[in-house]
Design goal:
heterodimer, A: 171 residues, mainly alpha, two-stranded antiparallel sheet, 8 helices, elongated, B: 75 residues, Cyt_c_oxidase_su4_fam (chain A), membrane (chain A), mitochondrion (chain A), Cytochrome c oxidase subunit 4 (chain A)
Chain lengths: 171, 75
């Protein structure tokens, strides 16, 4: 929240917004500046920005703003909607709409997983040194036999799964 | 204003209701987890240990280990 306020302050100082104000001219669509050319940034966690969305108003819109200063019961429904649209770019429903961005994100994540896997495979083939003696199958078998002889974890653990009479794993 | 007016939403007591739901939920979840753990993990483990030691002969166990050759002090 604080960072958003600071950011909007930064934008107001001399970001793209001030340049945009001078270069865009004339007709109704240009009054609604689309982000990022506006000093207006609303999101779900910062829904009420400091500045209104439309700052360049036609005479009609200025008249409406004058009317807004009076009693709001005098405003018609269409006028209230127009005032809302002057102040805010999107409604909450529009702002919070879903998107399909997650599919892109997950796709990129899996792509880079695969790429990393390919790199590691190449390294395994061309770069990795020999396995140490303790990781050879022969050594590991002798190690396991020694652990079973010591009856490690005989109640619920490893040795409890070994059948000492038949010399095999319990079914 | 609109032709079909919406029902008035809940205006008060939102935090209290949220807290109540979460208190009840927290109690339920923690008691449930504790019960499941007791009957899923703790009781079987106690039974396994009781069964193991019921007919356990420590000298027989030691002799088996000694014969397999793992000791340095008792061959």
């Amino acid at each position: 929240m604080l960072s958003r306020a600071a950011w909007s302050l930064v934008l107001r100082r001399g970001g793209p917004g001030t340049r945009g104000k001078h270069s865009l001219e004339g007709s109704a669509p240009s009054e609604r500046r689309m982000p990022p050319y506006a000093n207006y940034f609303a999101q779900r966690s910062y829904p009420m920005p400091d500045e209104p969305f439309c700052t360049e108003l036609t005479a009609e819109q200025r008249a409406l703003k004058e009317k807004e200063k009076g009693s709001w019961t005098q405003l018609s429904h269409a006028e209230k909607v127009a005032l809302y649209r002057l102040q805010f770019h999107q409604t909450f429903a529009e702002m919070n709409r879903r998107s399909n961005e997650w599919k892109t994100v997950m796709g990129c994540v899996f792509f880079f997983f695969g790429f990393a896997a390919l790199l590691i495979w190449w390294q395994r083939v061309y770069m990795f040194p020999e396995k140490p003696i303790t990781l050879t199958d022969e050594w590991k078998a002798k190690q396991l036999q020694r652990i079973l002889d010591m009856k490690a974890n005989p109640v619920q653990g490893l040795a409890s799964r070994w059948d000492y009479e038949k010399k095999q794993w319990k079914k | 204003m609109a032709s079909g007016t919406l029902a008035k939403p809940q205006m008060r007591g939102l935090l209290a209701r949220c807290l109540w739901i979460h208190i009840v939920g927290a109690f339920t979840v923690s008691l449930g987890v504790a019960t499941l753990y007791k009957f899923g993990v703790a009781e079987p483990r106690k039974k396994a240990y009781a069964d193991f030691y019921r007919n356990y002969g420590s000298m027989k166990d030691f002799e088996e280990m000694r014969k397999s050759g793992i000791f340095q002090s008792a061959k």
